[in-house]
Amino acid sequence: MKSKLYNLLSPNLRKILRTHFFWAQHKLHKTQYKNIAEPKDGWPIILGISIPKSGTHLLTQILTGFSKFSPFAPRIPFVFNSRDFKTGEILPVGHAVRYLSSLLPMDVSVAHLVYYPETAKLILSNNFFGYFIYRDPRDIIISYCHYFGDIDTNSYIHPYLQPLRMEDRIKATIKGFAELKYGIDIGKYISLFTGWLEHPTILAIKYEDLINHQHDTLIKIVGHFSDRITTLSLSRDERVKILQDNINPQRSPTFRSGKTGEWYEHFTEEHKKLFKDVTGDLLIRLGYEKNNNW
């Protein structure tokens, strides 16, 4: 899949080829587990939802780890994104509905999926279950500044971030490039995803817990899986060990440091005030602060 000819193909054609390749791989994989009884309510779709720069690849490694002891897909062909990072536009809900409707039982998928009532209803009614990973928005800002300022040259943000000093990158990211057509401040952007915190079939996970309290968090992840999939014989501890062994942040093409609390090293008093002005009580609602006196 990484031949010179493959690299000459258009991004859309590469995406189609990857999807077909992974579909064929998954079909073969399922035959290894054909003797496992189907769960009472049928085989579901596993969906991982993340805010960009919140541990997407870490979540992907965990979810594909389920394939080590069940017929769920061992690979994910692409990450669906509710935002066009070439323009900054938040895509209409129809894009997400078509994406979700294309998934099949035993698929595993990961998406930067903003919360819409239509998508929430579809996930509730179409045999999905899954996970939502989120992160301290202040650390998301630092990750954005590094990634879109220095690495992803195709993003609409890159030309604006790249020339700036770090302190100015932070200010611009908090404000969300309001001067652009699709600019949106960090508070409004994160709030597009927070509806998943209350969805009954989605388990919410803090990125920080996966880094600092990994074993306990994997127990919760396995518990959520086991509540839905009741026909496997492996013990909880065996499942946790398999998922833990499947985690390798260095395999992520966007991995930089994996730190938590990095914002402490970069935020000035001006940044703190600006952040509080545009986010209100967001940190309190997400459980990162008890009040705004930080």
Describe the overall structure.
- With 294 residues, the protein is of the alpha/beta class.
- It has a single domain (41-286), classed as Rossmann fold (3-Layer(aba) Sandwich), CATH 3.40.50.300.
- It contains 14 helices and five strands.
- α4 (93-101) runs parallel beside α5, α8 packs parallel to α13 (269-279) and α11 (214-228) packs across α12.
- The radius of gyration is 20 Å and the shape is globular.
- The model has no long low-confidence stretch (mean pLDDT 91).
Which terms would index this structure?
Rossmann fold, 14 helices, alpha/beta, globular
Global geometry: globular
Q: Kindly provide the radius of gyration, computed on alpha-carbon positions and rounded to a whole number of angstroms.
A: 20 Å
- Topology pattern, helix = H, strand = E: HHEHEHEHEHHHHEHHHHH
Structural class: alpha/beta
CATH class: Alpha Beta
